[in-house]
Amino acid sequence: MDIQDLAQRLQNAERRALARAITLVESSRADHRALAAELLEILRGGERREALRIGLSGTPGVGKSTFIESFGKFLTGQGKRVAVLAVDPSSTRSGGSILGDKTRMELLSRDPMAFIRPSPSQAHLGGVARRSRESVALCEAAGYDVVIVETVGVGQSETMVEGMTDLFILLLAPGGGDELQGVKRGIMEMADIILVNKADGDLKPAAMRTVADYAGALRLLRKRAQDPADFPKVLPVSALAEEGIARAWEEMRSLADWRVANGHQASRRGAQARAWFEDEVRQALLARLTEDPHLRDLMRESAEQVAAGHLSPVGAAGTILAHL
Amino acid sequence: MDIQDLAQRLQNAERRALARAITLVESSRADHRALAAELLEILRGGERREALRIGLSGTPGVGKSTFIESFGKFLTGQGKRVAVLAVDPSSTRSGGSILGDKTRMELLSRDPMAFIRPSPSQAHLGGVARRSRESVALCEAAGYDVVIVETVGVGQSETMVEGMTDLFILLLAPGGGDELQGVKRGIMEMADIILVNKADGDLKPAAMRTVADYAGALRLLRKRAQDPADFPKVLPVSALAEEGIARAWEEMRSLADWRVANGHQASRRGAQARAWFEDEVRQALLARLTEDPHLRDLMRESAEQVAAGHLSPVGAAGTILAHL
User: Fold this and answer.
1) Counting one residue from A and one from B, how many pairs have CB atoms under 8 Å apart?
2) B 246-305 near A (Cβ less than 8 A)
3) ipTM of this model?
């Protein structure tokens, strides 16, 4: 694989090159990992490009795909290039998304200004975090203006997505409250902006009440000292009727600009890079246990001996560690 | 420290020796870790003793301490020696339990047949899992017949406790339902026996309704193939009035005996030992990153460089790993 060529084509915004690069960073093969690291280094040396990275969370049923389609088309209509990455470790059980994200966002996926990447099937959260952070970096290097990292709003993946984005947006449906919608309190507290979708037709009054309820609730949650006083905000949107989308974007942009101007975005990205580094060291260290065939055999044999009661867990572990 | 002597006194059921041994396994100091491993090896070589290990989960307010007091006194009254270990990683924020578990279980703590160990303040779940598994092994070696591992019913600690016990008991309060009581569905699914506490006085009718509701709900959950058809069971108890305790114990004993007779307990313990071994290897490997002062400095300096944008996360991680 010619990594220099791949880097060049990616920087020239070739979508196929970006897709190929993401496939490379998603691979857990040692030779692919080395190529991926090389690619990321080359891209770091290139022109400095920075996207606005938006984490978007919402449980199934709130209309997340419709919102991304509507929001994405709005952005490309403004001349912005938009990448959508899906992060859903829970879908690993079914081996990735069933229908594929592209069929969920038909218009956007045909838009040359947009790039949509479905969830991969990945074994564990650590692996998903690693490939997602690298995929975000690839989208940035490819010159995308906005990178949306989408997640399902029910698991641990939100903390991970917050750790790789500049803004965190929570999409809710009208009525019911976050508990009934299965949204955890911790996720509520992460949100910079809550969008109450389906504010159209019969559901509009319920949506407006939900907006008012959450605006009240958010005032009770601890404020983040570094944000303007009127954030986090709650806004109604209708992905279907394409209403409130411009306003939502304006608020996202305004908060992001404020954070950039006050140095908060830079310090957040610095802290994120530090956490990425530390996680990378830990993951790579643990990967040594499974990469080396000799060690893998030794681990397996020791595990059998331990399970059969012939060796103690701690004693057998000590033997393995003496080998390393 | 004379480890042979400590082992001897522990096997002679000296409570002070057991307390001291647990303090040793709780320590994260490298020399203490080595002594702890030595102690565990000596004890493994001794007389084979096996306790019934019971995981007990319940959110604050269900009367868990009163239940353990009542249940523990019942067991010691039957001539059994009982150890109670508390596992509560969430209490780490306040630096361990505030009042101390012994004041919560006043009668049991004065019983010479019982041993109660309060939660330690521990930094992370991995550390808590390690010391808890080792503490359970120490209690077994000290000849306790029943080891109760208590947890708070709201976090990840339940999976950990299930991974080191033979039976998992969930304590609920009457009415409200598990969601209102903050019990996660995953925890419901782990339970071998659900006890609805406070089945006394005014609350008795509500407790009996709760028993019936959960009996119905459990029939809808997937059954474990290896258990008798009438498990998981739901039973009423009153820790305060000391009612239903004997019945609860009878059911626990009957399920445990059934599993022993069918080889399920042995295979479960084998799988648990295997998981312990694998976790031990991973934790010890990661501990190397912080134990070596030179490496720790290198990690810190690299992290600063990464945060400042002078190094890439993946590149800096590669440099660290080349050092190892």
Assistant:
1) 118
2) 270-271, 273-274, 276-278, 280-282, 284-286, 288-289, 299, 302-304
3) 0.81
